[in-house]
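Researcher: Let's try something more involved. This one mixes different molecule types, so please make sure each is placed in the same coordinate frame as the others.
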Amino acid sequence: MTDRRGFIGKTLAGASTLFLTGCYDLSEKPWFTGILARVEDLTRTAQHLFAGPHTLAPEFTKADIAPVFRANGTIDPGTPEYAAHVKSNFQHWRVTVTGLVEHPLSLSMADIRALPSRTQITRHDCVEGWSCIGEWTGTPLALVLAAARPKPEVRYVVFYCADPMTIEGDPDKYYYESLELSEAVHPQTILAYQLNGADLGVEHGAPVRIRAERQLGYKQPKYVHRVELVADIKNIQGGMGGYWEDQGYTWYGGI
Amino acid sequence: MTTDIASSPAHEPARQERLRTSLGLAPSGPHYFFHRHSAVVRVAHWVNAICLAILLMSGLNIFNAHPALYLGQGSDFNHPAMMLGSMSNDAGNTVKGVTRIGDHDFDTTGVLGASRVDGELTARGFPNWATLPGPNWLAMARQWHFAFAWLLVLNALVFFVYGLLSRHFIRDLVPTRKDIAHLPREIADHVQLRFAHGEEARHYNGLQKLAYCAVIFVLGPLVVFTGLTMSPTMDAAFPFLPWIFGGRQTARLIHFLCAFSFFGFFIVHIAMVVLSGTWNNVRSMITGRYAIRGRKP
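Model: All components are placed in one shared frame. Result:
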């Protein structure tokens, strides 16, 4: 009896190992990851169909705000340049708007704050599974992009950040992200400079971060210093449209 | 004449015959085959089985990225409804896996919260052998999960259209008044592991119908809609989704409970398949042919 049980147990364990190894191997086969990429397209297309360009992410009341907003990802860029900005209270911080635009911009934080603002109490959804509700204030990105007068061929908006994601001995790698143009000009997509009524703390992306409320957290980069309008993301860094995308996460972050 | 062991346990056949029955082989006495499952049901069943297995295991992988569940819209990190955590000693080595449900902690070292990775006890929600497609691989697990979720939903749509048009739902799945009236008797038979093998076996019994209906019409839609509620874009498209479920985190918790309800169903389903005649059941779900004891009426 024990022998038979041992045999059945070993057979099951062996079969499950085979199955898991098979799944792992499949995940590295180009034809299979190609199918997964098509599925990502399908998900994005279906979600666009349902959500359209204008539907708003749910907004909440002050009573729903989390006492402590969880900071995730980089909580301090840690570079001497960034430390100098913190010391000078970001007086010299610039956000440039470049790429396929008629009228490139270089905005100080005072310039950004002088533009009309939007305040929204929204739910932040991390790809890991948790959520946190906070009140964000910032300038609608649509206003800034309109001021730069995008050329007709623009399809993506790329954000460059000040937080290095360097693994030792591998310089010049900073966080970056991209949104498609329709999501970048969504009314709730803002260059946020306040959280819960106070200036952004370093852990939340001071002095300015992106809020794109219909997207997961990794699509909402912190420490933004350059916004580039492009026709394609293939030639930027790893070519997948973002730091995490280059590590294998899907570019579409609405699910 | 039918010989039905469910209704006449006193006339149980010899040991040989019992073995044939439990293995699901055609009985040595009079019997005939009938066409039990249509091709659509058979294909849908196996596609479903593959999808659910992969969805469960890739889901556990996703869960491991943040192995805690909460009630409400946001996560109250200090008060999870459920958590798979771990404890380490002063040297920083993981020494204990803890499953917390509400205010209660359970030591689940080795399986939940902390399990062995290359021989070393490591903080991990569910163990590597239960997660797919590779250990701690959130990015790829998400892609598998969504791909097979699509397949599951498309398969379900085909099955629903077929079930309605062919009257499979009404004819075979929805319990009749008679089924409900016979439930106490059905429960008693199941507890004693007495299953129909004669004419009665041509139809699902009341418990079977209830179980299948619960899975198909309640659990299935619930797992899909709670899954969609976790998507921020879907919540913009359909704000009633998080509202219905009491918030995104509650939806995530319900999604998790659904997953384990499916798993519970699977365990009971397999047990019933084995106890009521393995090969006869499996064959009927592959070729459609199911052996009935007795002469064809």
